[in-house]
Amino acid sequence: MQWLTDTMAGEFTLTVLVSMIPVVELRGGIPFGAAAGLPVWAACIAAVIGNLIPVPFIIVYIRRIFQWMREKMPRLNRMVDALERKAHLKGQKVSKYKYLGLAIFVAIPLPGTGAWTGSLAAAFLDMPLRRAIPSIVAGVVVAGLAISILTFGIANLI
């Protein structure tokens, strides 16, 4: 990270971590990075990286995790049911346009959309990892640019 100063490296890392959190994702990570004093490009890159880190793990392992939770922690069955319902509902919106639909869904910078929900939908639609990842990456990059523009303004991006 030679392109970051020593003080910026900490803020960059924290922005990556904040962007990994479900619900918050890069929609909260970019404003967090801005508030921490990162330049627009650094906040956007950190948030995109952080938002993408959990994606392959969600797609590959979420069904096994839900099954394990049902067996070992039956008190969480209602939560697992709600997450599965959400994935199926979002998956219906995505399935019509497949991978393009997944990219568009992830790119929409609104609550209930994003890389985590898109990854859940991809997992429950049995999308192959190698085909789902590029769609989710494209959606996250578009969402990152949109949130950067909303956070920093167009003038700061030029």
Describe this protein's structure.
- The protein has helices at 6-19, 25-35, 40-52, 55-72, 77-95, 98-107, 115-124, 129-152, 154-157.
- Helix 1 (6-19) packs antiparallel against helix 2 (25-35), helix 2 (25-35) runs antiparallel to helix 3 and helix 4 (55-72) packs across helix 7 (115-124).
- It is 78% helix and 0% strand.
- With 158 residues, the chain is mainly α.
Write the layout of secondary structure elements.
Blueprint: H1 6-19, H2 25-35, H3 40-52, H4 55-72, H5 77-95, H6 98-107, H7 115-124, H8 129-152, H9 154-157
Helix pairs in contact: 1-2, 1-3, 2-3, 2-8, 3-8, 4-7, 5-7, 6-7, 6-8, 7-8
Count every helix, treating DSSP H or I runs of 4 or more residues as helices: 9
As a percent range, the share of strand residues is: under 5%
Question: In angstroms, what is the radius of gyration?
Answer: 16 Å
Overall body shape: globular
- The averaged pLDDT comes out at 88
N- and C-termini, Cα separation: 23 Å
Q: Classify the helix fraction into a percent range.
A: over 70%
What structural class do the secondary elements suggest? mainly alpha
Query: How would you characterize the largest beta sheet?
Result: none
H/E topology pattern: HHHHHHHHH
Task: Kindly report the oligomeric state of this protein.
Answer: single chain
Question: Regions with pLDDT < 50 over 5+ consecutive residues?
Answer: none
- DSSP strand count: 0
